[in-house]
């Protein structure tokens, strides 16, 4: 058991004073949480700022006044509960955390579908206090050790920023020979999804609204980058790259904006994976198109611990290089949100307590 006496009784957090603009994010003091017997106490070293956080702050999601948001967490295990098996494996370890702590015992968990578990401590920032804080509780069920040469800021984005794309590509069975269209490819999720799809052997057509993203996306392995294209242009490029009848897989990362174009680019039997939801809105799904082409539509949630473990291995082996992060001190969370909202951050914004 590490020196629990070095853990203070109170900690600095940034909480929501209400919902709305970035200025509702205010510094506050809270008691340090007590991990249960089967839990870990993690000293937060970095917490990523996700698009999800912006929605939560605006009041679109479950967070309310008083919530401490933040689910992209890396840190150091500073206390291990008495019921944790093999405490030596965790004590003092640097870890990245999956956004949800599952219960580990319900039918979903025992079937391996921990993202569906609703009986555990739950999702950081919604069901339990999140990572805009100096400490969070965690569990061997949602923590994965990270190598020494992966810095804290990088560690914080491995689950949500990278693992989400890996899970989505796997949901669609993406593999060698597939032509994959990625919408919102220039965003935090998108750049990693492009690199991961390439790593899985697919040919990638990246869609983005930003001409500045073309060069980086080509470097990540996209075979083509199309700037705000119409459906005909996407289909043409997909055909030139081997998808004569259309794309095998579309990874839809934007929500509404690129949906219609993405849908029309699919081949018969194509697989559409809905992942991103940056502008929550209903989508124009043409049933005729889905029926005639016998399309498969998947939803894909966050990474689970197994996905995160695979991401750590991919990073360790050099197969995937996570994008650089720009850091802000925790108490400047409002400034970080403001910069992200103004699209002033190339790479990921990360808060450091
Ligand atoms: Zn996230
Ligand atoms: Zn469960």
Automatic annotation (TrEMBL):
It comes from the Bacteria. It is an enzyme of class 1 (oxidoreductase). PROSITE patterns: ADH_ZINC. Residues 20-351 form the Enoyl reductase (ER) domain. The keyword DNA repair does not apply. Its cofactor is Zn(2+). InterPro entries: ADH-like_C (IPR013149), ADH-like_N (IPR013154), ADH_Zn_CS (IPR002328), ER (IPR020843), GroES-like_sf (IPR011032), NAD(P)-bd_dom_sf (IPR036291). This is alcohol dehydrogenase.
């Amino acid at each position: 058991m590490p020196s629990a006496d070095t853990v203070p009784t109170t900690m600095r957090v940034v909480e929501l004073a209400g919902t709305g603009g970035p200025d509702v994010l205010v510094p506050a003091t809270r008691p340090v949480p007590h991990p249960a017997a089967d839990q870990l106490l993690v000293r937060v070293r970095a917490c990523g700022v996700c698009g999800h956080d912006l929605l939560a702050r605006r009041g679109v999601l479950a967070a309310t006044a008083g919530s401490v948001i933040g689910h992209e967490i890396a840190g150091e295990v500073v206390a291990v509960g008495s019921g944790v098996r093999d405490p030596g494996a965790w004590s003092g370890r640097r870890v990245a955390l999956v956004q949800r702590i599952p219960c580990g015992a319900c039918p979903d968990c025992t079937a391996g579908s921990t993202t569906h578990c609703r009986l555990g401590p739950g999702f950081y920032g919604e069901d339990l206090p999140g990572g805009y804080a100096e400490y969070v509780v965690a569990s061997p069920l949602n923590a994965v050790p990270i190598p020494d040469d992966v810095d804290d800021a990088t560690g914080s984005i491995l689950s949500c920023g990278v693992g989400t794309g890996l899970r989505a590509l796997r949901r669609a069975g993406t593999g060698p020979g597939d032509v994959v269209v990625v919408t919102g490819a220039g965003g935090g999720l998108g750049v990693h999804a492009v690199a991961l799809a390439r790593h899985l052997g697919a040919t990638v057509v990246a869609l983005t609204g930003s001409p500045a993203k073309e060069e980086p996306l080509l470097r990540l392995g996209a075979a083509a980058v199309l700037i705000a294209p119409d459906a005909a242009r996407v289909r043409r490029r997909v055909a030139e790259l081997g998808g004569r009848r259309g794309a095998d897989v579309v990874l839809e990362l934007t929500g509404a904006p690129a949906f219609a174009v993405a849908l029309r680019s699919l081949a018969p039997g194509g697989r559409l994976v809905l992942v991103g939801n940056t502008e929550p809105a209903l989508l124009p799904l043409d049933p005729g198109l889905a029926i005639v082409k016998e399309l498969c539509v998947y939803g894909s949630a966050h990474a689970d611990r197994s996905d995160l473990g695979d991401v750590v291995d991919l990073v360790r082996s050099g197969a995937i290089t996570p994008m650089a992060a720009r850091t802000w001190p925790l108490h400047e969370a409002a400034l970080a949100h403001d910069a992200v909202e103004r699209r002033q951050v190339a790479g990921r914004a990360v808060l450091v307590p």
